[in-house]
Amino acid sequence: MSTHGLVFAPTPLLTVTIEADASDAAELHVHAGGQGFWIARMMETLGLNTTLCGVFGGEAGKILRPLIEGEGVAVRGVAMGGENGSYVHDRRSGNRLEVVSVRPQVLTRHEVDDLFSNCLAEGLTSGVAALGGPHEDGVIPDETYGRLAADLTANGIPVVADLSGPTLQSALEGGLDILKVSHEDLVEDGFAKSEKPADLATAMEELGEKGARVVVISRGEESTLAWEDGQFWEAIAPPAQSVDHRGAGDSMTAALAVSTAQGESLESGLRLAVAAGAATVTRRGLATGHGEVVRKLAERAEVRKVDRPGKGTS
Fold this sequence. Notes:
Blueprint: E1 4-8, E2 13-20, E3 26-33, H1 35-45, E4 49-56, H2 58-70, E5 74-79, E6 85-90, E7 97-102, H3 109-123, E8 129-132, H4 143-154, E9 159-162, H5 165-174, E10 176-182, H6 183-188, H7 197-210, E11 212-219, E12 222-228, E13 231-236, H8 248-261, H9 266-281, H10 291-300, E14 302-306
Parallel strand pairs: 1-4, 1-8, 2-6, 4-5, 8-9, 9-10, 10-11
Antiparallel strand pairs: 2-3, 6-7, 11-12, 12-13, 13-14
Helix pairs in contact: 1-8, 3-4, 4-5, 8-9, 9-10
């Protein structure tokens, strides 16, 4: 059992959201963002001391680091010559409207090497390493994910990943303890022919053959499906009214990482994961579920072993 985790977050983002207050006046909310940070924040929320490894540069980078640390997440950063990515969203209508998005700059070879070394050093002293994807393709070489996963797993550090596309392919080659992926990404990446349970089951088996010990598929409002060593699972979250669905998948990944670091079973991890996702959608902040709410919802989650999804259907 470990009380420390690592999150690989190559491209932390600076986010600005415009909201309307009770009198319809505009409010500006400035936060750190990006998948890696959202995973790290939820890991901290669930009681695991977490360090984020990422790159920081430019004006956005100067603001980002203290914002991340202000959320209780430790930072092991690499300075870069370029600028961190950022975006501005307008939510005054109730929906997210993108006002502007600034792409993070491509990392140089030396920046990639320094980031890799920092993450490996931190990961080797951690109970789990969670791999978050880059905000944009091409910012960091895809093969970085495979090398990091391989070196960590070879040294006995469990690796949890939430990836898609080329970075997923690379990470699978390195070996993953748990892969969390959405059903949409499986179809888009060509692993599943459709979102039908039978096709998702085939995709889970293929991902297992390619290097994932456990595969967990989030399906929005539908039940979560999982696979481990030939056994299929289904996890059903307790009911919760959704305010903003974004960030639910990242919260699930964080919960799976925390349960892995604490040496818990897949059943317990799935229970915590669907609860974290459910708690997140009740709030407007991405992956900001309340820890006590997550734990209480986990007690109400339903997790069971099931036959192969779609078995007996054409």
